[in-house]
Design brief:
Elements (H helix, E strand, L loop, with lengths): L1 H31 L1 H4 L15 H16 L6 H24 L12 H15 L26
Helix pairs in contact: 1-4, 3-4
Bound molecules: zinc ion (ZN) (2 copies).
Length: 151
């Protein structure tokens, strides 16, 4: 049964992180934390942006949970793994796929992937702190679906 609890903990942490990231993005990064996030809504000069510091901040609880759950490797450890896995998926989606910080030719044909990419591009249409839209990352509502002209 322990493995079931561990998997539930991992998945739970992963899903929780999307909600947490949405909340942080909407109320902190576009709130008092805008001084760091602002760099992400402007053209980037050089390899890094101040906004990257948020990744370091988010990594802290992941490391802490994994440390706390060791060496038993219990559900707390797996919650830390869930946060880490979220961070990895977030990075691949947000920094690589959408913002192309590495050269690649990946063009997802998958409808859900197209939806979340479009939602984040809509988020970036707004360069300012206020009146933002689409604060989620790996989840977006169907209203962000790419409209097909043949439908
Ligand atoms: Zn933003
Ligand atoms: Zn972005």
């Amino acid at each position: 049964m322990t493995w079931l609890i561990n998997i539930a903990s991992l998945l739970g942490a992963f899903i929780f992180m999307e909600g947490f990231a949405w909340f942080m993005h909407k109320y902190v990064m576009h709130g008092f934390g805008w001084f760091l996030h602002k760099s992400h809504h402007e053209p980037r000069h050089g390899r890094f942006e101040w906004n990257d510091l948020y990744a370091v901040i988010f990594a802290a609880p992941a490391i802490y949970f994994m440390w706390l759950g060791s060496p038993e490797y219990n559900y707390i450890f797996f919650a830390g793994c869930g946060i880490t896995l979220y961070g990895l998926c977030y990075f691949l989606f947000h920094d690589i796929l959408v913002h192309r910080r590495m050269n690649h030719h990946v063009r997802p044909g998958n409808r859900y992937m197209q939806r979340i990419i479009r939602a984040h591009k809509i988020h970036h249409k707004n360069m300012r702190k206020e009146n933002g839209k689409a604060f989620g990352f790996l989840f977006a509502l169907p209203e962000y679906d790419v409209k097909r002209t043949d439908e």
